[in-house]
Amino acid sequence: MNVYRYEQNPLVTPSDVKPHRPDFEVIGAFNAGIAQYKDEVIMLLRVAERPVSEDPEIVKAPVFNVEKNELEILELQLSDERYDFEDPRVIRKAGSEQFVYLTSLSYLRIARSKDGREFTIDPEPFIYPSNDLETFGIEDPRITKIDDTYYIYYSAVSPAGVGESLVSTKDFKNVEHHGMIFAPENKDVLIFPEKVNGKYYALHRPVPKSTGAPEIWIAESPDILHWGNHKYLLGLRDGMWDDGRIGGGAVPIKTEKGWLELYHGATKDNRYCMGAVLLDLNEPSKVIARSETPILEPEADYEVNGFFGNVVFSCGALVEGDTVKMYYGVSDTSMACAELSLSEILASLTEV
Ligand code: MAN
């Protein structure tokens, strides 16, 4: 696979972003949703900020308080044995898989560009946690344009779980909130850019508990707000690059051969790569072909090293002719972009 990484990579790093308050530091500007808006490429960044801690023995956890409409900052002692601080992203209850706090708060902020390489970051957050399902933050947005409306959907994180919420905008200024469309635990929703046989379609990624795994499902909707007729779509593959967890990445791309979905797959030890899957044009719940090997894997220094290294994670791509401009988060830290050939991706897939 020919992959052309931009010379300017990483395109946006945490140091390019001014914290939204003086006592905070930006630790991530990554996993951005992508849209073309008028003559601008919009990169809707997930910005992760944490309260500056002067004392290395204290871990601070930001939590949005809905009643007070402000952030609360909890202080935990690193020596407190009730907690497990091993994963830099989360604070777990000792001996448990579940987290009780996140180490940073994420919100969404716009970066704009005329050429898709040099970005200017808006001075203020665009979408900030605003309700009791978002008290730990909002993350990993995707943007689907349908007619003149941009649907933006993201992971809403709170003690109640991680689900997927939907908002919409026509101008990247005024935002209408539509509530949660996929209840916890669910992430990596991708709404198709047009109806197929009179229905809207979305990929989603529930995390089943009693049996099952973090795998990709597909659902239908008459109106983008209500989703049903859920079907299991794509699973993990033992011993391969996507044997730990998988989820949709960029908004599905319409091609003559079918809907092309660029998805992420992680190994059991959390190495995140990008691959592709082709779905039937008229019946997207039918899988036609899939990547045996990744189309992009962490190789460049900025993809290997960072806050949570060995991660390439795309939330959006732009297509121009045969060129796929895949924007992607690197190591839960920064944003990068790589160009790939659409026909080459399609030719690389293996029929299932
Ligand atoms: C995982 C990671 C984190 C994220 C939480 C909650 O632990 O993806 O970055 O904050 O889930 O979504």
Automatic annotation (TrEMBL):
Task: Give the CDD domains listed for this entry.
Answer: GH130_Lin0857-like
State whether keyword Glycosyltransferase applies.
yes
Q: Which residues form the signal peptide?
A: none
Q: A Pfam family name for this chain?
A: Glyco_hydro_130
The keyword Transferase is annotated on this UniProt entry: yes
The GO terms describing molecular function are: glycosyltransferase activity; hydrolase activity
Q: Which UniProt keywords apply?
A: Glycosyltransferase, Hydrolase, Transferase
Which protein family is named in the record? Belongs to the glycosyl hydrolase 130 family.
The protein's name is Glycoside hydrolase family 130 protein
Protein species of origin = Fictibacillus marinisediminis
